[in-house]
Amino acid sequence: MMKVKKRRQIERKTDYVARKKMLSGDMPRIIIRKTNKYIIVEYAESKNAQDKIVFGGSSKSLTKYGWPESMSGSLKSLAAGYLTGYLIGKKIKGKKVIFDFGLIRTVPRSRIFAAAKGVIDAGVNVSVGKDSLPTEVRIKGEHMKNKIPFDKIKAAIDADKGAK
């Protein structure tokens, strides 16, 4: 008898072998996704193969922390990814989690790893190869023509009581 692939497997949305391994570990996950406009970071727990998103956020929320409106098109940049990861990491602080990048191609020093570095810098216990994380110069956006008030936004996230 021929086995029929599941719809999400055909659409390349789910790798069921990797998902089963991840769910059998019983550890909470940090899910990092990127869209055409934003970086999304979520904290999820799984019970009996049922995912529950405890909380999350996207880089769109950085505008309330001082991200310039004129640079709203760069909410998917390395700096935005880092700050979004940092914001969510402040809420998780001190827990041991694993990263879930899904089927995103994991290119070292990319936006996905910038978000991961933000989570780690916020104080979350996660193991990731240091070679895959982007440099401070790239994260702060110092290479960009229009400078992002990176330190000001990071300080606003640290000062926000709702982020802790």
Helix-strand layout with pairing:
Blueprint: H1 7-10, H2 16-24, E1 29-34, E2 39-47, E3 50-58, H3 78-92, E4 98-100, H4 111-121, H5 136-139, H6 150-159
Helix pairs in contact: 3-4, 3-6
Give the number of domains: 1
- CATH architecture title: 2-Layer Sandwich
Q: Roughly what fraction of the amino acids lie in strands?
A: 15-25%
Structural class, from secondary structure content?
A: alpha+beta
Q: Describe the global form.
A: globular
Mean pLDDT: 85
CATH topology: Nucleotidyltransferase, domain 5
The total of beta strands comes to: 4
Q: What pattern of helices and strands is seen along the backbone?
A: HHEEEHEHHH
Query: What is the C-level CATH assignment?
Result: Alpha Beta
**Uncertain stretches:** none
Query: How many H/I helical runs?
Result: 6
Radius of gyration: 17 Å
Helix content: 25-40%
Distance between the termini: 54 Å
Taking strands numbered 1, 2, ... along the chain, how are they ordered across the largest sheet?
3-2-1-4
